[in-house]
Amino acid sequence: MRERELEGYREQLQQLVVQLGRDDIGLGEVTEAVGKIHFTLARGHHTHQAEMPLEVLKDHDRALAAMMAIVPQLSKAVEQEHIEEASREGGNHG
Questions:
Q1: What is the C-alpha separation between 81 and 75, in angstroms, rounded?
Q2: Counting beta carbons within 10 angstroms of the beta carbon of residue 43, is it exposed (0 to 12), middle (13 to 18) or buried (19 or more)?
Q3: Residue-range domain boundaries for the chain
Q4: Which of 11, 22, 30, 67 could form an S-S bond across to 16 if both were Cys, CB 3.0 to 4.6 Å?
Q5: Sheet architecture: strand order including 46-53
Q6: 26-30 — which CB contacts under 8 Å span 24+ positions?
């Protein structure tokens, strides 16, 4: 796959994230292998590796639904860290 094609997929994936109202999530490395796009989502120092079949990316509604299922996996890690930080801070007062 050519670099231009990968850049197109990168832009498409980032747009899907933005359409979900999550412009706080960035897109890291994007690669292609065996009919799938592999990519990294990032928020702060948290990252999440994901993949999406190329055939899904060809259909906007399916791609948006797939991204809607992927984004919470990154969000769960961020939320868990916030809970742990709050617990530590709460334990220091008292």
A1: 10
A2: middle
A3: 3-91
A4: 67
A5: 26-33, 36-43, 46-53
A6: 30/6
- 92 pLDDT more than 70: no
pLDDT at 93: 52
Residues in the chain: 94
What is residue 94's three-state secondary structure?
Answer: coil
Rounded Cα distance between 88 and 22, Å, is: 27
Say how far residue 34 (Cα) sits from the centre of its chain. 20
Helix (H) or strand (E) holding 37: strand 36-43
End-to-end CA distance of the chain: 58
Alpha-carbon distance of 61 to 82, in angstroms, equals 32
According to DSSP H, which parts of the chain are helical? 3-19, 54-57, 60-91
Tokens of 15: 């747009």
pTM equals 0.79
